[in-house]
Amino acid sequence: MPLIIDIQHACSEQHLPSDALLQQWLNAAGQSDTDGFEVCLRIVDTDEITELNHLYRQKNKATNVLSFPADIPAELNLPLLGDIVICAQVVKQEAEEQNKEWLAHWAHMCVHGMLHLQGYDHIEDGEANIMEALEVQILQHLGYTSPYDEQ
């Protein structure tokens, strides 16, 4: 059973990937032990992501993606993986500035957020190398080039 994905559109941006593509990207990044788990993907404007980034990371600026892994006691046995919040305007702006195809950049943000929910991180160099290699592998499987190649 694949992931159960709840997609929330809470932004003014009209040019967004289809829900089917968003689901495809999240499912592609899910490991086998995420089958049957629920993920919430919320697409927001800069005000909301700035507020969340300030509240949870003490950074008072907009960012592209935030991930919030579920922190539920094991004894509750709830199949919640967590929440991913993506800012549509930041993703659009980054794609333009970095000369990236916008769908490829959206796919990268979904994959990146999904990997964070599964415990991957990029704070330490070794962890970053592992996470980035996995992102590249997943994105290439989806038909996209490496987001880390020079544009």
Key phrases:
alpha/beta; globular; 4 strands
Any overview of this molecule?
By secondary structure, the chain is an alpha/beta fold. It has a single domain, classed as Metalloproteases ("zincins"), catalytic domain (Collagenase (Catalytic Domain)). Helix content is 44%, strand content 18%. The protein contains five helices and four strands; from the N terminus they run E-H-E-H-E-E-H-H-H. Strands 1-2-4-3 form a four-stranded mixed beta sheet. Helix 1 links the parallel strand 1 and strand 2. Helix 1 crosses helix 4 and helix 4 crosses helix 5. The longest helix has 17 residues. The chain is globular. 30% of the residues are buried. The mean pLDDT is 92.
User: So, CATH architecture?
Assistant: 3-Layer(aba) Sandwich
User: Between the first and last Cα atoms, what is the distance in angstroms?
Assistant: 37 Å
Coarse morphology:
globular
Total of domains: 1
Low-confidence stretches: none
Percent strand: 15-25%
How many individual helices? 5
Topology (elements, then pairings):
Layout: E1 4-10, H1 19-29, E2 38-44, H2 46-57, E3 65-69, E4 80-87, H3 88-97, H4 102-117, H5 125-141
Parallel strand pairs: 1-2, 2-4
Antiparallel strand pairs: 3-4
